[in-house]
Amino acid sequence: MYARFLAVIPLLLVSVACADPEGGGEPSPDASPSTDIPQIGPPVPRDGGADVQVSPEASTDAGDGGAPLTVIPGVAGRTLLRGTILATSGAIEGEVLVEGDRITCVGPSCAASPGANGASVIETHGVISPGLIDTHNHILFDVFDDSDWLPARRYANHDEWPNEAKYQAMLDVKQCLEDASQGKPTWCPATYDGAGSLKCEMDKFGELKGIVAGTTSIVGLSGTTSACFSSVARTLDAPQNGLGQDKIQTSALFPPSRSAADGVCSNFTSARTDAYLIHVGEGVDARSLGELDRLGTVSTTPGCLYAPQTTVTHGTAFGAPEFARMAAAGMKLTWSPASNVALYGSSTNIPLARAAGVTVTLAPDWSMGGSQNLLDELRFADGWDNAHFGNVLTPKDLFAMVTVNAAAAVALADKIGTLAPGYYADLMVVPRAGQDPFASLLSARPKDVRLTMVGGKILYGDVALRPLVPAAPGCETVDVCTASKLVCVAEADTASKLGQTYAQIRAALEAAMVDVDTITKSDGYDFAPLAPLVNCSK
User: Fold this and answer.
1) Which pLDDT tens digit goes with each residue over 35-62?
2) I want to staple 217 with a disulfide (CB 3.0 to 4.6 A). Which of 38, 181, 234, 298 is the partner?
């Protein structure tokens, strides 16, 4: 999905290059709405139905997952987790030892590790996975959902659907609430609250949508260096991600300008950019198909963006020749099937991409027509594979797309995406469901997530974890689809809105959306209330 705006971040910060505030530019003269693309019907089903079929390996419900999670408090800063550990080599019964923000032991037993002595113990009675990595999310749109906007029909390419009046009205609301430097509507009040915008609240709400689904890192196209970004989940495309220097660039526009493309290629050469994530080939027409060729001509040095650092977001129109070219250059691919199907009625041919040797990641895109979180997207991808690809993707394949493959796409495979000594302690726990432990991720919903940890800190999970979280500023108890959960948002530092609770974040956004609806009553659209943190019907 192309957002029709893009905040510009200084090149010094090595993030998004340049952009038209309305995104994507004007459609080319020869681009007209397709008349032979089927009209969209009811929203595409997330489970079951003719287009999406539940995997035989995955239960449709995580159930009670057996025994509940239990804890034995110990020395602060050291935690030993026991359960079924997911790794690319397979699943093992064992232990994960966390000391500070790092993993120090993974194996059948960590008893020989000095740090295990006196550590807090979490008997997960479930599956321990690396934290999920979202490589494609327009995070500031997460205040909306399907009830706010869905495409009126299926389209041929990415320059058509942004012309829908309701989408444009929704975009105006978003630009207003974040106090966007470009594209802010004239009707918008000068500021919202003391900071002049609600961008922090919008981002943290989006990060929370990830955290409750076990997503610990997000490429959110956030466009800011504010400390509130990455204060919950890691915002990978920002320097304050806790992983060192940000060496990720993103572009939600196609084609990028020549100066932007040249800047990226220069950064490849100087090693200032290790990962470049760009929307290419989003659509189902000849124009979309030709975008890979065009990517090779946008820079002064032809083809310099055909590089291992480049990850193509979407590639919906691509076939075997395009994937072969990508594989030869070491390029990677991000797949967002739910969004693709909602907008275009089809999705990227993942079996062709994998057959060519392209590394594939999976991400939800955004919450209107896409998925509200990566657990939902995993189920959608599994169902789409079963219905359209012949069930060629195993639960382990899908697991890799949101862990080790995703880490490779953002050039952080030595830091996140794997449970191994020396890696950051970003992990999640879900109940065991069925015979295949990898399929447990396909069954899990946010209510089932027993623990989400980022850098050794517990941010979400079962209320039994309360003895292991700080007493101040404390964690909140929230209802997630009838399950009581802890969510830990507020920090002791109150600068940059870091001291906000989840309740305060939600209240600020809800009040602002009601206010905006009142101001824009004449347009006939209402975007209040705020989207739920979790839509329990999915």
Assistant:
1) 233 333 333 444 433 455 555 555 544 4
2) 234
Nearest to 52 by CA among 377, 486, 496, 322: 377
Task: Read off the tokens for 54.
Answer: 């539940």
End-to-end CA gap in the chain: 21
State how far the Cα of 16 lies from the Cα of 283, in Å rounded to an integer.
22
Strand order in the sheet with 132-134: 132-134, 215-218, 234-235
Assess if residue 491 is contained within a domain.
Answer: no
For residue 308, give the CATH number of its domain.
3.20.20.140
Q: 54: how many CB neighbours lie within 10 A of its CB? A: 18
Written as one string, the DSSP assignment of 217-261 is EE--------TTTTSSSEETTSTTSSSSS--EEEE-SSSPPHHHH
Paired tokens of 413: 């495979």
Task: Give the domain extent around 360.
Answer: 11-25+141-189+234-409
- Residue 443 to residue 487: CA distance in whole angstroms: 22
Asked if residue 134 belongs to a domain, the reply is: no
Q: Where are any strands of DSSP class E within 291-357?
A: 310-314, 332-335
Q: How far apart are CA 306 and CA 381, in angstroms?
A: 27
